[in-house]
């Protein structure tokens, strides 16, 4: 590729070059600057549904999701301005409200970005949490930690062409489901693990990791509790 094909734009006062077809977020990451992001991950189509990656673009009134916006020559983008940061923090705080502390994977991407932007706790009320689903032998499901970023859905549908995972219902009731809202263990899941790799919070984890004694994730406290009750009922 010729240098003349590159798209030069400004990010927080620094000039960077984007390859045609790259988003602002992709170009920024390639240039060594990360912008908060959760529903975007390398290798999956950008979906633009979490809004953690919003940036200010000179001349535009509304903040733009950097994972879905292509840079233009001369564009001036601010990812660290007061306005962009306030909005990124608000998104993280809202998402964190939905994830109980004992359901969040300690080293999750959500935890990472909350730490980076100083979001310690949420002022918002949590939603009603679904019961953990331990019906699958290889994958532990805890949708209490789900932020509906749909990375699992895209990984299942677009990477593996399995199409087991979907989004059901609308608005605040939106939820990840397996097939027709089946327990994961009785769904058509083949256990490939792409969804586990894609999940940024720990809503989907390897069952072995969750069940390991002293497992290094916070989620097992909740899951193990539910699982222990099931085991106690086995004669
Ligand atoms: Fe851009 Fe989620 S990472 S909207």
Give a verbal description of the structure.
With 235 residues, the protein is an alpha+beta fold. It is 27% helix and 14% strand. The protein has seven helices and nine strands, in the order ββαβββααβαββαβαα. It has helices at residues 24-30, 82-97, 109-116, 151-159, 194-198, 207-211, 220-233; strands at 7-11, 14-18, 54-57, 64-65, 76-78, 139-141, 165-168, 175-178, 204-206. A five-stranded mixed sheet has the order 2-1-5-3-4, with helices on both faces. β7 and β8 (175-178) form a beta hairpin. The model is unreliable at 216-235 (pLDDT under 50). GO terms for molecular function: 4 iron, 4 sulfur cluster binding; formate dehydrogenase (NAD+) activity; metal ion binding; molybdopterin cofactor binding; NADH dehydrogenase (ubiquinone) activity; NADH dehydrogenase activity. In the C-terminal section; belongs to the prokaryotic molybdopterin-containing oxidoreductase family. Keywords: 4Fe-4S, Iron, Iron-sulfur, Metal-binding, Oxidoreductase, Repeat. One of its GO terms (cellular component) is membrane. Residues 137-166, 180-209 form the 4Fe-4S ferredoxin-type domain.
List its salient traits.
alpha+beta, NAD-dependent formate dehydrogenase catalytic subunit /NAD-dependent formate dehydrogenase iron-sulfur protein, binds FE2/S2 (inorganic) cluster, 235 residues, 9 strands
């Amino acid at each position: 590729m010729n240098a003349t094909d590159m798209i030069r734009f400004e990010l927080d006062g620094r000039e960077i070059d984007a390859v045609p077809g790259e988003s602002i977020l992709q170009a920024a990451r390639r240039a060594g600057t990360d912008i908060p992001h959760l529903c975007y991950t390398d290798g999956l189509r950008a979906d633009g549904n979490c809004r953690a990656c919003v940036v200010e673009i000179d001349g535009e009134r509304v903040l733009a999701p950097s994972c879905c916006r292509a840079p233009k020559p001369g564009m001036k983008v601010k990812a660290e301005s007061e306005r962009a940061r306030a909005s990124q923090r608000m998104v993280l705080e809202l998402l964190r409200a939905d994830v109980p502390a004992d359901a969040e994977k300690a080293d999750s991407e959500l935890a990472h970005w909350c730490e980076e932007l100083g979001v310690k706790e949420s002022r918002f009320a949590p939603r009603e949490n679904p019961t953990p689903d331990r019906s699958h032998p290889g994958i532990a499901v805890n949708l209490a930690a789900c932020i509906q970023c749909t990375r699992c859905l895209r990984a299942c549908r677009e990477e593996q062409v399995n199409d087991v995972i979907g989004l059901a219902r609308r608005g605040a009731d939106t939820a990840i489901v397996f097939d027709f809202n089946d327990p994961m263990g009785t769904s058509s899941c083949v256990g490939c693990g792409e969804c586990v790799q894609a999940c940024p919070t720990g809503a989907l984890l390897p069952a072995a990791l969750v069940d390991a004694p002293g497992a290094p994730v916070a989620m097992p406290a909740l899951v193990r509790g539910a699982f222990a009750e099931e085991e106690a009922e086995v004669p």
